[in-house]
Amino acid sequence: MEEKIKDYLPTGYNNLENFFDEAYPADIADFLMLLDSDEKEYILKNKANISLIINIISYLDYENQNIVAKLMNEEKLSTILSRIYVDDAVDFLGSMPVGKVKKILNLMKEQKASELQSLLGYDYESAGGLMTTEYLAFYNDMTADMVLQKLRKISPGAEMIYYIYVISRKKELLGVLSVRQLLAAQPDENLKDLMTENVIKVGINLDQEEVAHVFAKYDLLAVPVVNKRNQLMGIITVDDAIDVIEDEATEDIYKMAATGDIHGGLLAAVKKRIPWLLILLVGDLLSGSVIKNFEESLQVVVALAFFIPVLMDMGGNVGTQSLTVVVRGLATGELHFANFWRHLWQEVKVGFVMAVILGSMLSLIAFFWQGNPLLGLIVGGSMFMTLLTAVTAGTSIPFIMEAFGADPAVAAGPFITTLIDISGLFIYFTMATILMEKLI
Amino acid sequence: MEEKIKDYLPTGYNNLENFFDEAYPADIADFLMLLDSDEKEYILKNKANISLIINIISYLDYENQNIVAKLMNEEKLSTILSRIYVDDAVDFLGSMPVGKVKKILNLMKEQKASELQSLLGYDYESAGGLMTTEYLAFYNDMTADMVLQKLRKISPGAEMIYYIYVISRKKELLGVLSVRQLLAAQPDENLKDLMTENVIKVGINLDQEEVAHVFAKYDLLAVPVVNKRNQLMGIITVDDAIDVIEDEATEDIYKMAATGDIHGGLLAAVKKRIPWLLILLVGDLLSGSVIKNFEESLQVVVALAFFIPVLMDMGGNVGTQSLTVVVRGLATGELHFANFWRHLWQEVKVGFVMAVILGSMLSLIAFFWQGNPLLGLIVGGSMFMTLLTAVTAGTSIPFIMEAFGADPAVAAGPFITTLIDISGLFIYFTMATILMEKLI
């Protein structure tokens, strides 16, 4: 087994012990995630001691944390959990079945267990689910020197000591100051005179995507989380925001291709993909029925079939272009409802120019290829109309979905393509049938 | 004009002055970017003083920085540039024409100007292009107390004081320590005994996407940039890494839809999109020629045309699913070359199961719709083979592109779809022609 695993060791290491001793925890985690499940099992059972797991656990993804949890007993898991940051511990617990979580919490110190318990109550994808309770907060009547003395003694347990939050006796968030400001202050100055009152903060139920936007927008290292009464409940650190930004972009990309993620086995992958494909199959059969309804025209002029691919694909491509710009613009916050008409008008103009260019080109191609000017007119004209429909649908549909609270990324790629296929084929064959008499 | 602009003010503000006084700089920048160009011009000329611009300039995107640069004279611009962080100044200068940059640098203090000049020399999308020269570095023989005294006096000019870098007299990077470690240290301890020697650092020419991966992987607030001789050249801060992660995801999503970004006018948008469409048009015409080559078969059995949409679309959809998983996996670092065969095998298995389900469904549909079992066999069989081709091509092509140093995202969506269309139609009509005699 060890010989097999060796192939995956980064260059410069030729045995596991050496690698585990010297590499960064994040690299060890990456290496583990590359392996097959039997190889992982071998390592976790024979080679990984508890301190290694403590170092790498927060760098493993959900599926791999789950594998670790399965292979260890509750006692070991409670030791690991009590020695990592609270927010990482909550994530790790989230990968285990409820029964196991209960047993583990029973084995832990009461205070830590109840802290974890309360954090587990928040939605995984909300500010509450992202936050840690390891932050620094002091009352507003303390002096700079008092705080500095405390900082010197503090255990490395607090994940983020770079911002210091100032609270009232009722735990209300009053202000914030940086360690830099603290160091530059006079020793006897009160926190309330040093702090910035205009704190950027997030509500405990805010969606994680919105939380990530706050980080991206305001360039922060940490953001405080408050409840409805403005009481400080925790903080979210920038490293978690980075993970959310990556994950949300990945999620959008997968949704736009109607696919699932890279993890999980054969059945999981099929289960994620096939429902979308079945829906799309129905849509494509509708495209087919459009053609069937015009069977007569097709029988008379078989050449009409040659242009089916180009009409279908170009409509889909142009629609997807428009749609992609909107979906991504809405996700990064560059587009808002306020822009809808302005943006639609811009897309229609772009679409018009492209429709004129591509429509007239295709007209000429059809004419020279088939030697029939009327066929050229039909093909070029349908292309023109299909492309205009495509930009309009591609721009409007994601805005409409967002307005109804649906995720615009779901509307993407294949769905818009199928919709435009149906309307494009309908335009094409209707035009052909009307001009039929002259065509033959 | 002000009445018109009022519509865009966030709720709670009813006049510009009030908004500019109270809002966060990032929100003011967002507001400005929403406006039309004449509205922007009005504000920049009449309402925005220089300190407002200083506050918001780093939150504006490239296009809007360019607008600001156009509307201000060199003197004002040099004042702005001398009062913002060095890395932001370099970005701002990057939005101006070379002639203007020269004039501005001539107006600035020589030291600052030459610093900016040297940073401008790095590729915009490399570590050198992202870094700032405002960092804290001390020699390894200094004591904790000496450093703390210096920190107390330091101007807020250093963008990141949370890591302290330790260097030799030759400027070689020897280690790093956090302010937390410094505060906890004995006053007379030397930096060389406090520091961590195993520093995560990046080379000055590293691509920005790789730089962002380093942040995402190791959970850092800043990363030092070194040249080939391990001399400390600057640092990159996490806020810039977040922007890169968002930008790179956006870029990939746009590439996969063969489209450009949201900014710029009509012509810019057409110019970005139409080259791709022209290439795709050629591909689609090739699909059409496949049909033309089988004109005879089509003439005999017109019903063959009804299934063209479903074969084309489903092949494209399944290929795009496989491709999306690979493109995103390569981008986030979840997939590597080492995984190629393993991942291909997984995709082929997934594709096989889906091909069996969808192929047999379509067989039955074709049979019942047209009452012809042979047609059912042709349609279902081609679907099966097309889907297997689709997963294989969708998985392999991005890996191959990456191997040749090309960006796999470019291969995506429409290109793979067109390729699979051609092969799918070829499979379909070949099968139909071979079985033709029995079909009629």
Automatic annotation (TrEMBL), chains A, B:
Keyword Ion transport annotated: no
Keywords: CBS domain, Cell membrane, Magnesium, Membrane, Metal-binding, Transmembrane, Transmembrane helix, Transport
SMART domains: CBS, MgtE_N
InterPro entries named in the record: CBS_dom, CBS_dom_sf, Mg_transptr_MgtE_intracell_dom, MgtE_N_sf, MgtE_transporter, SLC41_membr_dom, SLC41_membr_dom_sf
An example Gene Ontology CC term for this record: plasma membrane
A Pfam family hit: MgtE
Transmembrane intervals: 274-291, 297-314, 350-369, 375-400, 412-436
Membrane topology: Multi-pass membrane protein
GO terms assigned for molecular function: magnesium ion transmembrane transporter activity; metal ion binding
KW Metal-binding (keyword) present: yes
Location of the protein in the cell: Cell membrane; Membrane
Domain of life: Bacteria
CBS domain segment(s): 131-194, 195-251
Function as written in the Swiss-Prot or TrEMBL entry: Acts as a magnesium transporter.
Family of the protein in this entry: Belongs to the SLC41A transporter family.
Assembly description: Homodimer.
PANTHER family documented for this protein: MAGNESIUM TRANSPORTER MGTE (PTHR43773:SF1)
Name this protein carries in UniProt: Magnesium transporter MgtE
Organism listed in the record: Iocasia fonsfrigidae
UniProt lineage: Bacteria, Bacillati, Bacillota, Clostridia, Halanaerobiales
Gene from which this protein is expressed: mgtE
